[in-house]
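Intended use. Records like the one below are meant for learning the mapping from a protein sequence to its folded structure. Do not use them to infer anything beyond what is encoded.
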Amino acid sequence: MKILSVFTSKGGSGKSTIAIHMAVIASQQKRRNRVLMLDYDVQESSRFWARARQEDNPPLLPADPGTLNGYLKQAREEGIDLVVIDLPPHSATQSGLALEKSDLVAIPVRPGAFDLWAMEATAEAVEEAGAKGAFILNQVPSRGTEADETEQVLRAKIPQIPVVKARLGLRKPFSSALNAGLAVTEFAGPKEKASQEAVALFREIKGLLK
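Structure written out for the chain above:
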C-alpha cells in the first residue's frame, strides 16, 4: 500500500484538486487500483466534492490526527492499494504524523510570489517528517513566463525537493468537473487539455511512489 499526501502551508493552492484527481485517476487504471481518500482539511473541499458525486468510488472519509493509524491499519487489511490524504494548510504540527507516514508528499505551488514565500516553511515541514516531497506547478496561466520563473526559483532555493515536469493549467474544465462531483477525466474527453495534464501528472506521481 502506498500513501500520497497533498500538503502546503499556503491555502488556496489547489490541494484538494490534486488530491481528488490523483485518487480518481488511480481508480480508473486498467489494474483497477483500490483507492481510499482521507480528508483532513477543515475547509472540507474534498468532502463537498464527494457529496456532489453520484458514486462512492473512490471512498472518502473525514479524518483527524487521532484516527490516522486506525484508518491506515484498516486500509492495509482491506487490500487498499493507494491512500490519498488531503491535508490542511498552515498546520505542519497537525499534519506531522501523516507526513511521516507518506511515501510521497505532493506540494502544489501556484506561480507567483505569495506561494513561493510559503514554500520554505512547507519544505521544512516535509523534511522534518523525513518524507519525500515533489513540487507541482498548479493553476498555471496559459500565457506568460511566471510559471517558468517560479520553477527556477524553487530549483535554486529548495533543490532537495524536485519539481515535476507535469503542470496543471488554469483551466475551466477543472472547476466545472469538481462542481459536478467528477474529475476532469470523467467530465471531459481524453483529448481535452486538462484531462491530458491530469493524466500526465498521475503518471509522474505514480513513478515517484515506487
